[in-house]
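#structure-requests
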Amino acid sequence: MTHKPIRAVVVGGTGYTGAELVRLARSHPSLELTTIVGNTTAGEPIDKVLPSLQGVMSGDVQPFDPDAIAQDADVAFCALPHAASAEAVSALRQRGVPVLDLSADFRFYDLAVYEAWYGKHPVPELLNAAVYGLVELHREEIRGADLIAVPGCYPTASTLALAPLIERGLIKHEGIVVDAKSGVSGAGRALSSATHFPEVGEGVRAYKAGAHRHGPEIEQELARLAGAPVRVTFVPHLVPMSRGILATCYAQPSSASATAEACTLAARALYEGSPSVHVLEVGEHPDTLWVRGSNRVHVAYTQDPSSGTIVAMSAIDNLVKGASGQAIQCLNVRFGLDEGAGLGATAQWP
């Protein structure tokens, strides 16, 4: 039996995450990409704004028109900056369009926490309608959601590494440190001296240490699993590569039985059946190159024999599992498709 394709539109489709959504949507067996919507690029040829689509996709980038989108799409991906995304999402939801939002606008359960880090929320009344889009932890809620808040790259990598340990009570809730390193594409397509090639090409730097917006998002998800507050010191770093996130997390064991082997077994139990998460053997170390271009997550655990510290590690591609692939995975669950549909590509290695 042949099913009609799911018609999809990408709002904000000319940035890096939007472009990745377009790439993944075009190769998805059940999706039909109907429109690419831009803002400053509206009216320009798609294959000029996204040169990777030359000879592949024609037509112009469209302006944002929620009525037209509601008529032409069964679902919308929204890849706009925070605040701007909230207003677009609100307009689409008012017209009954299910939305997968890649901004931070609907990821927080607590309005006060959002506004402490991002400023006043344009449509706070929608917060309670959103489901956090980390499939491995919210699969059942996503099935019935019409507004899915797709998490970003740092929270995805960090949370997936630590979640099994928190769920099983293997680590203490205080004193957790997340040391995460990201490729430059995580900063987006807009020009900035901070991400200019001569500024980043030969160095590695920490930034916003202990003051990054993704820290409270990681704490929120871990606290939900713990049933109690969890405290995380989050320190991101910029490294001279285009793609990838490597999160190395340090935590104190809750008891003598909390070994690297126990952590590995806990992760394999939590992620059993996942088409995306692969748990490495004890002592193996994830590498961003092993997951580049894929929706894969590699997690691994070891323990410092001197201090007893548990080291939880994960590697993802920040533009795929850390953004656009994650959104596709959420769509698959929401529309009753195979969770890994359109996401089966292996990493681009080497």
